[in-house]
Amino acid sequence: SPCGELGSLKDEIIPHVIASQFTKPPTKERASTLLNIHDVAETEEYDDLVTKYNTSVVLSRHHCAKPLDSRVCYVYRHPGYCIRANNLNVYWELNRKMSTLFAEVYPNSSWSLKHPSADVHEKAQISDDIIIGSGSVICEKTNVSSTVVGNHCRINSFVRLANSVLSDYVTIAPGCVIENSLITTNIEKKCIIKNCIVTDPERVEENKTYTNEILEASQDFA
């Protein structure tokens, strides 16, 4: 099958399948290795599924003349919320909106934006639009706003954290200031991080300010 040599589902395979649906079945016998959509689309097997998942669709004049064809690329519309976070900007925006989408994404949830197992000190200042994962600890004299805190994180005292995303199992050292940043590793030294992506703790130095940087492990393994 030509699909065996295609590497992208979105850019190659789906367009290939859609284009193939308008071709006619082959009239000559072909080698078994040269399969196409006519060899794998069994109309009888998929007729029920095609009808089931298109019952809410108003058929056009083109569909009225003949039964639904299982080779056609139909769409099933799910009533839930869906975002394709396939790049950093979309992932970032999704996290920023999660506090407002929480009730829709987790309907009838037994817990709210703060997981019941999270430990938030009474003297910690947290805004209403943050999400705190299970087992996470926010110590006293901290200020956390508009941030998503993953599971089992620890934010130590005197930390100011705003408009950021923390992955699971991240620890923030006392006295750090972090704004508009994505943190996927421990910040073990007091520092200021603004508009950064941090994936390597070794790139962070004591009492240093980082702005608009990507602090990741070096790709030079020589």
How many helices in DSSP terms?
5
Would you tell me the structural class of the helices and strands? alpha/beta
How much helix, percentage-wise, in residues?
10-25%
Percent strand equals: 15-25%
Biggest sheet character: 6 strands, parallel
Mean pLDDT: 78
Protein name: Mannose-1-phosphate guanyltransferase C-terminal domain-containing protein
Keywords: Cytoplasm, Initiation factor, Protein biosynthesis
Main location: cytoplasm
GO biological process, one term: cytoplasmic translational initiation
Can you walk through the features of this model?
- This protein has 222 residues and is of the alpha/beta class.
- The protein is built from five helices and 16 strands.
- The protein has helices at 9-20, 37-40, 43-52, 61-64, 88-105, and strands at residues 119-120, 125-126, 131-132, 137-138, 143-145, 148-149, 154-155, 160-162, 165-166, 171-172, 177-179, 182-183, 192-194, 197-198, 209-211, 214-215.
- A six-stranded parallel sheet has the order 2-5-8-11-13-15, with no helix packed on it.
- It is elongated.
- The model is unreliable at 60-66 (pLDDT under 50).
- It comes from Halocaridina rubra (Hawaiian red shrimp).
- This is Mannose-1-phosphate guanyltransferase C-terminal domain-containing protein.
